[in-house]
Design brief:
It comes from Natrarchaeobius halalkaliphilus. The chain is mainly α. The protein has one domain: MFS general substrate transporter like domains (Growth Hormone, Chain: A), CATH 1.20.1250. The protein is built from 21 helices and no strands. α2 (20-37) packs antiparallel against α11 (180-194).
Length: 401
């Protein structure tokens, strides 16, 4: 009852004053972007068959998606500091729609990789514009607003992979990804129309040049920023490595059917629908350090136990333990947004996310190499150790003001 009361109160607060429609359309766009990315892991077996990919090369494909989803966030942040966020976000989802059409029609592995790179690059323009827009819209409840938008991402990541699996099995694997294309087109139209007045928010003044990134450097020279950048890198490394191959692991190592594996994979994100709003509200009330520790301790146990469990119901419980890590973004992103001045907020967020996501994008290909050599189980023990390191770092992280 208490959890329901907290969630209900936060929903009422962020929906008021005419801001709810803007929040909803932004959240829907983000849910589509993140949900589509999680379709890639469930169609990897089909791509392996069609294009003759090994696990290592399949891991490289996932890494390409995440790499290009990160490199565009710095220029995306610079653009968000200068130009209209609604145009940036609408353009982002339209580019992704085009990229998905190229992925499902790719005649060769080279075209597949190029289309996947465009997919990532298109999606990279959305995140920072989303944060800067919401930071102007919600000056007191940014954590809650971001937590709710990130929860819709988990709705997409919960719902779309099973739908993709059903379509891939009953129709064709191309249908499992292609059904997202019209949804992105509709989202682009909705973003452009509904956010047209930008809700009266003022843009910070700036040159809009990549040279603005130099203005951010002094704001990185704090212990809090150093800790948060390190934590984000390790978190993204863990998250990308886990999500890239979990459905494949459940099918090939645990012996589950593709449909059960995709449902279990979806349940990982389903928990985030509740976890992320609660994590965002916790950040607003008790700060970053305690919130992050509570969020990241359960995955340590989940990763450590995963290699030793085969029962499907126990795997559901372990997946739930790991899923608490999904609340991390609802704490780290508002923490970073609150740490930068308004003039360089978008550039600062873009710089941090580009650095951390680019470095972490090597996780899936490294995990794919480990799996190819027959050490799938040992890979999850490594993830448990890395998550434990993040928890230790968090203990010494300066808390938010």
């Amino acid at each position: 009852m208490k959890v329901r009361t907290v969630v209900g109160r936060e929903l009422k607060a962020v929906w008021g004053d005419g801001r709810g429609v803007s929040l909803a359309v932004i959240a829907i766009g983000w849910g589509l972007l993140m949900g589509s990315r999680m379709i890639l892991p469930v169609i990897i077996p089909y791509l392996q068959t069609v294009h003759g990919l090994s696990l290592t090369v399949a891991g490289l494909l996932v890494s390409v998606l995440w790499l290009f989803a990160s490199v565009g966030q710095l220029p995306g942040g610079v653009l968000a500091d200068k130009y209209d966020e609604r145009t940036i976000m609408a353009g982002s989802v339209i580019v992704v729609a085009v990229a998905l059409a190229l992925v499902i029609t790719a005649p060769t592995p080279l075209v597949l990789f190029l289309a996947t790179a465009l997919w990532g690059l298109g999606s990279s323009l959305y995140p920072i514009a989303r944060i800067t827009f919401l930071s102007n819209l919600y000056t007191e409840r940014l954590g809650s607003a971001l937590g709710l938008t990130m929860a819709t991402a988990d709705v997409g990541q919960t719902v779309f992979p099973p739908i993709a699996t059903v379509l891939a099995v009953t129709v064709a694997w191309q249908a499992g990804l292609g059904f997202m294309i019209p949804l992105f087109v509709l989202a682009g139209i909705g973003l452009f129309v509904i956010l047209s007045d930008r809700d009266g928010s003022d843009h910070p003044t700036g040159s809009g040049s990549l040279r603005d990134a130099l203005d951010v450097l002094p704001e990185f020279r704090t212990p809090a920023m150093a800790y948060m950048t390190g934590i984000l890198f390790l978190y993204f490394f863990i998250w990308q490595s886990f999500t890239a191959f979990y459905p494949t692991y459940l099918t090939t190592v645990k012996g589950l059917s593709p449909s059960v594996s995709s449902l279990l994979f979806g349940s990982f994100f389903a928990a985030g629908v509740l976890i992320k709003p609660l994590a965002g509200a916790a950040y607003d009330r008790i700060g970053a350090r305690i919130s992050l520790i509570a969020i990241l301790v359960p995955p340590v146990a989940g990763f450590a136990l995963l290699p030793f469990v085969d029962n499907v119901w126990l795997l559901v419980g372990i997946t739930a333990l790991v899923s608490t890590m999904l609340g991390s973004g609802a704490v780290t992103q508002p923490y970073l947004a609150d740490s930068f001045s308004n003039e360089v907020k978008g550039t600062g967020l873009g710089t941090v996310k580009t650095i951390t996501l680019t470095l972490a994008s090597g996780g899936p290909v490294l995990f794919g190499v480990i799996a190819d050599y027959g050490y799938f189980n040992e890979g999850y023990l490594v993830l448990a150790a890395v998550t434990a390191i993040v928890v230790v770092f968090t203990f010494w992280m300066p808390d938010s003001d």
